[in-house]
Amino acid sequence: MPQLEHIEAIEKRLWSAADTLRANSNYASNEYFLPVMGLIFLRHAYSRYLAVKDGIEANLPKRGGKARPLTKEDFSQKGAIYLRPKAQFDSLVALTDSDDRARAVIEAMESIEADYKNLRDVLPKAEYQELDNAVLGQLLRTLNPEELKKVSGDVFGRIYEYFLTQFADQKAHDGGEFFTPVSLVSLIANVLDPARGVVLDPACGSGGMFVQSARVVERHHENPAEKLTFYGLEKNATTIRLAKMNLAVHGLEGNIQKAITYYEDPHELLGKADYVMANPPFNVDEIDADKVARDPRLPFGLPGVNKKGKVSNGNYVWISYFYSYLSDHGRAGFVMSSQASSAGRDEAKVRKTLIESGAMDVMIAIRPNFFYTRTVPCELWFLNRARPKEHKDKVLMIDARNVYRKVTRKIYDFSPEQESNLLAIVWLYRGETQRYLDLVAGYCRRTLDEAARCFERETDEGESIRPLPDFTAALTALLDTLQPFLKTLPKEGKDDPLSVEKGRMLKAAEASPHYASAALYMETIDSPSPHAGEGRGEGAGVKVAETQKELNEALPDFKSDVEKFNKDLAGQQAAWKKQKTTNGELKKAVDRLAPLAEVSRDLIKQTDLLYKLAGRLIDETVTRMERERNPGFTTRDITRARKAADEARAQAVKQLKQVRYFWKQAHWLTERFPEAKLRDVEGLVKLVTRKELEANDWSLTPGRYVGVAPEEPDEDFDFEETLRNIHVELEDLNAEAAQLAATIKRNFEELGV
Q1: How high is the pLDDT of residue 497?
Q2: CA distances from 516 to 243, 318, 526, 558, 606 (A)
Q3: What's the rounded Cα separation, in Å, for the pair 273 and 287?
Q4: 626: exposed, middle or buried (Cβ count in 10 Å: 0-12, 13-18, 19+)
Q5: Which of 301, 393, 601, 625 could form a disulfide with 690, with the two C-beta atoms 3.0–4.6 Å apart?
């Protein structure tokens, strides 16, 4: 999915603006989220509408040269919904303060509900009457930023998910229980790999499991609306509305019923579901044992019952339900509290029986902080009622607690590549070797592509940039800007060490293609200065000259290394055209690409060094000019050139990092699975036999079996980035402290203290 380069910043800005407007409404945060999500729904729907509209119109049948009108069926086939003119977001944004915006938004929602029966009485309407007309107008404009109008891809789908995340983080609704982190949902959906049939989520929340299942089907170039049928259960009426909106905006429909799953089964899907996906409530201890004791969805019996007649812990009620819903060939994937995998007593008996059924397939351990409202670790469970004979007595244990990406101080997730690498382990377990090889080959191609983009690439906004050449050019322009000031520096003596070294460098550089630029900046060392011999001025001149000398030594080396990098890249690209995709040949390709990855890391260091030297030269020159009160001196041009060099450096470093990053993904896989076959890897994965499970009290905790991975030095440790992260963390803590102080103050005021 194409993304804007700065989508994260845009998401945060949109959220901040929308949340600020809450202060100008009569809604509390738990009331405000639904009208906001309604507008996000409209904007998301409009983006998808525009994305497919031209293609639909181009293929409409014509009679007498005139095409028939658009219909909702045209859009449903493309994973979008049809919008009448009054429901199109631009028409709402165009309204003025003299218009009744609330009425217009309500009519937009009503028009959608008229076309889609599954959305009747689902979309927010009356909620907009409580918003001030001007505030509503500002909110509409906030959610329609200029930079998002022309982007391709499902960008607003991401924003929709981001807003769900933020409302969950604020505990705006049921403590955030309506939302499961996208990275976990995506991993579950991709491990299950749904192709065709009935998908059930008995605790469906906002419907994220359904959306991610549909995306899996889309990646296989199939229409999910034709391949999958969605059934959901949810106890909260408001959350059901969110789920139906989430499905509709993706061109999907689902039968979602209001029910307390512990006691109700309105879909009657016992033994009929092809796929079960869920993130149920953890560790519930209020389930009435008498009401569920004879439930046919408990084939392994009832877990422990406490003195109050309640099921001691509801985790194994859920697990049993998931198993019982599966057809003979069905698969289930769900999130579960980490304590469930090793729970004792009656829960252990249920777990033993489940393992002995042969359906227990895969376990994946997840570190804490993946959830927005819970910091506890969890595990992903996968059942398969149609496992091959060679797997019947085994369970694949994956410990992914050391696999994560830090999003904020409090929140972690998986990068797309981390998710793919975990999936690759499952593919090898299932004997799907080609998918593994395709992934390794894809990483190799991406390494080459990212290396090529160091010399020319296009941003998501369509701007053409040349990261490495642009940086060199920006640095040269910066030094050019300094020339008038550098020439005023004092001249060194004929025989002083600096002059001798300069002469040697110029002589050595004469044969170099970079002689002109090297000589240009070194000759300033000989420039006369009206202040020569004036104590502090002379010292300052020598100090600047030393920095200049260091810079002029480094710049030609950098240019030479960049040229060599480009030449080596051309050779690698030529070799890749003849590349065979067998495992042995791909391993050779990964090894062959290693120097390219290493050079990209070295160029990052050189880029940072050059920029630091240039910055030091500027600072030293500016200090001297300001001290001497040079009447012709101004920092305006220097500041402008420095900013351009800083931006160019950031682009170059960012692009160079991508080269090594994708090579490391390929290397991560081939190093751990050199034969393209599943094997035990210390601290990561182990295929555990039933005998081992029995010897460990039938525990399904991956960490108990895989061991501890040996500590590896982080060769890519970035000190500056670490400092920036610490700074961000400090800002988060300060913001939390301020928010807490405000809450305490408000509480005291309400108490009359």
Answers
A1: 41
A2: 66, 75, 16, 15, 21
A3: 24
A4: exposed
A5: 393
